[in-house]
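Here is an idea for our session: we take a single protein and study its fold together. To get us started, please write out a protein record for me. Once you have written the record down, we can walk along the chain together.
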Amino acid sequence: MAVPGLPIPSSDLDRQHGFETGTTLRKTGVASRYLTRDETASQLAARACGEALARSGIAWDEVDCLVAASATMDQALPYNAAMIHAELGLLQHRTATFDIGASCMSFLTALDVCSTLVEAGRFRRVMIVSADISTFTTDRSELKTNGIFGDGAAACLIAPAEDAESAVLASAITTFSEGVEFCQIKSGGSRFHRRVPGSNSEALFEMNPGPLYALIARELPGFVNRLLHRAGVTLADIDLMVPHQASHLALKHVTRMLGIDPAKVVDIFPHHGNQVAASLPTALHHGLTDPPLPRGSKLLLLGSGAGVTLGGMVMIY
């Protein structure tokens, strides 16, 4: 994983808004988070990839595909993976690169797709990296969104399992497009482009939390039950649940809704906030390393994103 600079305490927002000290923490559940000042998403991604390679002991010459799985862009063109490839200085490396985008579910979607490609023999080793700078898109005059988002990146290297135990048992991604307008940034594409008067006002993140949470609450239990059934496990078999860090209330609701032991749930939200697509892999990094998780443990990766899309994966680490 990689984060920009030093953690920014929530008390900074208290001072910015003239709140009593502790107000932001109480309302958002974020004690501190990382916000970029001059580092781009590609630079954060490159640092995360470098760390993943260092931990694996594998050189770039042995990686044949680089996939960017992010919700935000450095720029409209070229795509993120090409930008990251250049940032890594891989100008002489003829690596396949492409993006997979599914808002906050981009990493999980990329892990699902790329594990299938590795299993099929299309690629031997794939680097997946999520890097998001979300704080430039939030309305800084209010806490609802500006108070919960943070910046960061996380990367993983996947390859065929060398043992018989590590595996993806089941994966599922389902979109409920009746919620397509519940969570959005309108500008940046062909619908609200710079030649349309007033399009700059469409560049900020918008969320309609009530209908969004109601839709997720209605669909999530059945989604998880079907996923676990396909994997041939029960919730009691899961050693660690790694959720997308949407908000402190969302994490509490999901934990209570599923009836899972809170000690089994990775919660890094108080010190990272919601890092969009980078959120889930950053939580996964902490879940695997702090403290070290033994091989053979069963993981449930779970989350939701704009679309509205639910994603989940059951895997043996």
Observations:
- Residues 290 and 317 are 15 Å apart (CA to CA).
